[in-house]
Amino acid sequence: MAKTGDPRVTLDDPHSFFMPGTNGRGVLLVHGMTGAPAEMRLVARLLNKRGYSVLAPLLAGHGADEAEFRKYRWQDWQDSVEAAAEKLRAEVDETHAAGICVGGKLALLAAHRNPGTLRSVALYSPCFSYDGWAVPFYYPLLSRHIGWLAHVPFLQRLSFSETPAMGIKDERLRRLMAGMSADGVLDDFPGSGVVEMYRLGKLVRRELPQITTPTLILHAREDDLSNPRQAEYIDRHIGGPHALHWIEDSYHMIHVDRQHRHVADLTARFIEAHSRSGVAATPAFETHDV
């Protein structure tokens, strides 16, 4: 059962949560690979205070352990997002989405595949491969050859350790995230996840010119896991109206780090600018049509 006082929204795991809102708009918040809905709570609370209904689902294979994680593919994660979007859609007048890293790509693909379901999407720290300043040298090396390494069974069985910074610049917030294993966040990420991330990213890259969903791209200039050029790539290639904003005082986990309030504010403003009611009283975005 979802953690909510509203009995209409039910989910099949103890980690997902729903926060009923008051303004008729819903936001689907999608966690990252090996993450869990708990990491979305800071942004969720801020959006909910603005009146938004918020649903944060657990992706398939997540929330348990590495053995369970390895049983699932990116298509299963995608199914989780699309099913959650339908649940949220039944509760509100219009739906939007935001997701961190892989979660953002899943949300964007869900919007593209199901026109009219999600009116806008915010991408937090988009990432096709781990190539930030803090990752070990062999991560980018593996990424460059992941196409053929994906067929080598040993990679699927490997596990990779999180970087010391955990994608978070603020030490207090880093300690908070470090204690989230009980909330379903995995300490390490299995090699199978790297493979599935590559396969999902390959599809999204191919689809970008055809994607017309209004898209907000938020990326930290100091991202320790994903080089800012990955956000710039999306900015250059996506086919619909979009805006790119830089986060100046955070690492990869911008929805958790020092500027999570700014991230929530930018997300809300973008949603308002692209809502059905056309509310544009907030400062306008520099939205590009490619």
What would you say this structure looks like, in words?
The protein is an alpha/beta fold and 290 residues long. The protein has one domain (17-273): Rossmann fold. It has helices spanning 41-49, 66-69, 74-89, 102-113, 138-144, 146-149, 153-157, 171-178, 191-207, 229-237, 260-273, and strands at residues 17-19, 25-30, 53-56, 94-100, 121-124, 159-161, 188-190, 215-220, 242-247. The strands form two sheets. It has a seven-stranded mixed sheet, with helices on both faces. It has a two-stranded antiparallel sheet with strand order 6-7. Helix 1 packs across helix 11 (260-273) and helix 3 (74-89) packs across helix 4. It is globular and about 45 Å long. The termini are far apart.
Percent range for helical residues?
A: 25-40%
CATH topology: Rossmann fold
- Which CATH architecture? 3-Layer(aba) Sandwich
CATH C-level name: Alpha Beta
In the predicted model, the low-confidence regions spanning at least 5 consecutive residues are: 1-5, 279-284
Provide the structure class: alpha/beta
Major beta sheet summary: 7 strands, mixed
Strand arrangement, largest sheet? 1-3-2-4-5-8-9
- C-alpha Rg, in Å? 17 Å
Q: How many strand segments? A: 9
Number of helices: 11
Instruction: Identify the overall geometry.
Output: globular
How many structural domains can be distinguished in the coordinates?
Answer: 1
Topology as a string of helices (H) and strands (E): EEHEHHEHEHHHEHEHEHEH
Mean pLDDT over all positions: 85
State the distance separating the first and last CA atoms: 42 Å
Protein name: Carboxylesterase
Pfam families: Hydrolase_4 (PF12146)
Enzyme class: hydrolase
EC number: 3.1.1.1
